[in-house]
Amino acid sequence: MAWAEDAAKADTAKSDTKGKVMTTDSGLKIEIVKEGDGKEAKKGDMVSVHYTGWLTDGTKFDSSKDRGQPFVFPLGGGRVIKGWDEGVV
Questions:
Q1: Could you give the number of structural domains in the chain?
Q2: More confident residue, 51 or 61
Q3: Any residues with CB less than 8 A from the CB of 73 and at least 6 apart, and which?
Q4: What is the pLDDT of residues 14-58, one digit of tens each?
Q5: Which secondary structure element, helix H or strand E, spans residue 66, and what is its range?
Q6: Is 3 part of any domain?
Q7: Does residue 12 sit within a domain?
Q8: What's the pLDDT at 10?
Q9: Which is more confident, 11 or 71?
Q10: What is the CATH number of the domain that holds 14?
Q11: Which helix (H) or strand (E) holds 18?
């Protein structure tokens, strides 16, 4: 994920997106591989996600799945790169 200015921008990008790569107004690229079935995350929630980070040339640079542990963080608190706060909302 890349940085973002406003998590609300991701809302419009997520409609009907499974299997598609979307680019938000901020430049964040999002691909929903498997949508969660829990309650919708909001600012202040602790969220747990598995992720794989890819460069635009197809090189994998990181993956929580490779380590066998999801990444847990407080959503919207600025504790992670802006793209995480935008992309997970």
A1: 1
A2: 61
A3: 46, 47, 79, 80, 84
A4: 445 557 888 999 999 888 888 888 888 999 999 998 889 889 899
A5: helix 64-67
A6: no
A7: yes
A8: 43
A9: 71
A10: 3.10.50.40
A11: none
Closest to 21 in 3D by CA, of 63, 56, 49: 56
Does any domain span residue 1?
A: no
Nearest to 44 by CA among 76, 21, 8: 76
The pLDDT of residue 9 is above 70: no
Q: What is the pLDDT of residue 32?
A: 83
Residue 48 lies in a domain: yes
Q: Which domain holds residue 28?
A: 8-88
Distance CA 10, CA 24 (A): 6
The string over 38-56, giving b where at least 16 C-beta atoms fall within 10 Å of a residue's C-beta and e elsewhere, is: eeebeeeeebeeebeeeee
